[in-house]
Amino acid sequence: MINVPEIFASMVFNECEMKKRLSKKIYKSLKKTMEEGSPLELGVANEVANAMKDWAIEKGATHYSHWFQPLTGITAEKHDSFLTPLGNGKIIMSFSGKELIKGEPDASSFPSGGYRSTFEARGYTVWDPTSYPFVKDHTLCIPTAFCSYTGEALDKKTPLLRSMESLNEQALRILKLFGKTARHVTTTMGSEQEYFLIDEKLYAKRRDLKMTGRTLFGARPVKGQEMDDQYFAAIKPRVIKYMEDLNEELWKLGIYAKTEHNEAAPAQHEMAPIFTTSNLAADQNQLTMEIMKKVARRHGLICLLHEKPFEGVNGSGKHNNWSIATDAGENLFAPGKTPMENAQFLLFLTAVIKAVDDHQDLLRAIVASAGNDHRLGANEAPPAIMSIYVGDELEEILEAIKDGKAYTANGSKRMSIGVDVLPSIPKDSTDRNRTSPFAFTGNRFEFRSVGSKLSISGPNTILNSILADTLSSFADELEKAKDFDKELQILIKREITCHWRILFSGNGYGEEWVKEAERRGLKNLKTTPDAMTHYLDKKNVELFKRMGIYSEFEMKSHYDVKLEKYCQVLNIEVETMIEMVNKDIVPSGMNFLNKLADTHSKLKDTGVTFLAGKNLIKKVDSLLSQIEEKKEKLLGVHQTTKALSTLMEKSKSYADVVIPAMDELRSIVDSLEPLLGQEYKPYPTYEDLLFSVQ
What we know:
By secondary structure, the chain is α+β, with helices and mostly antiparallel strands. The chain is built from 23 helices and 19 strands. β3 and β4 (90-93) form a beta hairpin.
């Protein structure tokens, strides 16, 4: 049995290790930097670096790396050894404060939207002292921000840190109006991670899984998830061994892996951590995805993080549980038990409602990808239309405020609505709505539209930024108020009334909601190019500039990166489909057809009619002809799309023309697959992939 408290964070240079290994003066200076963002003097950095190096060597490290999160959406690292020559063939192991604080990687080969050319290659990694270094694969990994030579953010971490500081500043302004003396407000996050596990040997036989992370072809098995017998079911022995191994690796790195269970689809599972600070949660989620894949290989498995690896069953999401809290531990999304706390809670709730309604486009754009477009609106995933679910009781309170009516609490006396006399709002007072993209769940909001493999830095940057901007406008208004209570009530009623359309507690999957959302004026941005059309709208550019999150230059870069990646993904998928048709599917179909024809010829000589065989020959021959026709059509629209001049034109053509052509080809191939004899199947089937891991 492993001793969890003993191994937990054993590979992390956290505050406990800092306190043990640093002098009181240096530790105090470092803490000030971590908590207040004050500059780190070189002398302090040198002592910290030396202590960090000694600790890492004790843990088996021989190298160090500035570990960062470029716009690829995954992490990057360049390893340098601690080795320093002394002469005469001797060496020492050294690590300086300068090496700790700043690194200099090549920035030209990372996505930048074109503003980093090969002849402008310099970039910088800068230590983020608020996120702890750790040892992984004999390397001391130092979490860093990544920026260009001219200062633009080239990563996911820098904007997230900016957004956290912006929200801190504006939330403190609001709290001051309520007489609170908080020194700092922190955003917190807990990310539920869904994934699939399949057999590695079967994966190796699927060209589409290897190249794209999802199955481009595959007939549905006779059994899927319709029996509801996978969700929370007893975990299979091979999977439980994987989970045990995964937990141990995560715990060593200080990741609060808490919950694990089977998800709804066959071969689908989920891991959920405990809440922690947003930037640390983002770092840890990136590590979690990397380790999930690595540990799976040890068990002869492959961990799939694509948002929709299998057609016809649940896709995988990442439920982004987001909240904000003060340094005193007060959760600002908790309804509270006293009238004034309710007033404060209602103001923050109103700010979230306004922010989400005003910036539906940004929330949809930040979760947009070729993979997530398949998932949103499908099994157990929220629709592309943004809305907020607050629960029945809270919605009744908000409606009473909006309409200026009295509210009667369940089993309680009737109360008139004034912010100063609001009743206590109970936590978890209502059911959950699994179809809502943005749901209030008692003391936090769950943003359920995030795709499984997406970095959570982007969504949390947007959430922090839009809330900070809204709180800023509220603070501007309330700081001028002569009668705070009266002006507060007026503001809350006005904004709830103005943004009521974003509240929805019904079935987000229903066609009725699509029509109702259109009537309300909500955006239904079904595809990535649809969403990105609005990304550079004037209101969005001004928001990020005003809050100091992105410059207009950085936004344009991210716009290009997002669309370029969308086109690249679809390009790879189309070319993989065509290869599979040419090299796997048609040859298998022809071999089967030849076998049928040969059997027919032999039986004909004996006088047997072989009627069933003759019909099957006609079906297979017809399907092979249709496959060739649909393949040529796909190839044609793909070439036309690639020739278009702008990224938006290409993206829209992929979404509106190429993807439908891909679906047509897939439909015919998937019709052929069940007709082929088992030995003629060109690749492992859905039945093999989804039900092989025991």
